[in-house]
Amino acid sequence: MDNQFSNTIFKRLFKDVQTLLAIAYLVAVAIGMLFNYKKFILFDVNIFDYAGLFDFLIAPFGDFTITLFTLGTILLTILIYQLDLFWRKKHPASYAKMMFNMDQTKWYTSQKYSLGLLLFVLYMFLGADVYAKRNKRAVVQENPIAITYADNTQIQGILIGKTTDYIFLLQQEEVKVIPMNALIKEIKLK
Questions:
Q1: Where are the transmembrane segments (predicted)?
Q2: Please, what is the angle between helix 108-140 and helix 2-15, to 10°?
């Protein structure tokens, strides 16, 4: 009964292509937010203090690495789910043997999806950590850039990243947040 209920829910959710695309986009935005947070937090910048809604809506597409990781993750998740269904349907004896005959119990389906979701979240955090560490190594090795203010004063530093309203520069061990508007010159973080 429980298996029928969950299958009905999945069929209704994934029957409509628009629903599938909306879910995939929400997952992509969440992945982009996580990756951006991990990227900036290594420089002691909480990106949620400086980024707007639009920055997060385009986050999965702002960096090619995040885009590839997002697409790969979504496709891998769908593939694993489909392989599980195929194996269970076409080879029920070997499936049951591999699952220690627990696939016949009531709690199996809900536990399988719960553990799958937990593994998915852990995979996201691990991927974001690896991405952030690689990104930090690459940023530190970049050449400095120069930003000229309206009054012709200039500031140099290594570009960490930017949002719609701010530019983040690294000067030695100091992180500077430079607003795009002309009213404030800079914000020192470290």
A1: 20-37, 57-81, 113-132
A2: 50
Determine the angle formed by the axes of helices 64-90 and 108-140, rounding to 10 degrees.
Answer: 160
Q: What is the pLDDT of residue 185?
A: 66
> pTM of the full predicted structure?
0.76
10 Å CB burial of residue 120 (0-12, 13-18, 19+) is middle
In this structure, are residues 88 and 103 in contact, taking their beta carbons and an 8 Å threshold?
yes
Structure tokens at 92: 């029920």
3-state secondary structure of 110: helix
CB-CB neighbours of 135 under 10 Å: 20
Are the C-beta atoms of residues 124 and 31 closer than 8 Å to each other? yes
Question: What integer is the mean pLDDT of 146-174?
Answer: 88
Task: Determine the Cα–Cα distance for residues 177 and 165; give it in Å rounded to an integer.
Answer: 10
pLDDT at 11 over 90: no
Percent with pLDDT over 90 in the chain: 28
The Cα 138–Cα 132 span in angstroms is 10
What residue has token string 């930017």?
A: 162
Question: 166: helix, coil or strand?
Answer: strand
Return the structure tokens found at 45.
Answer: 């910048």
Q: At how many degrees (to 10) do helices 108-140 and 17-41 cross?
A: 40
Non-local (6+) Cβ contacts of 62 within 8 A are 32, 36, 55
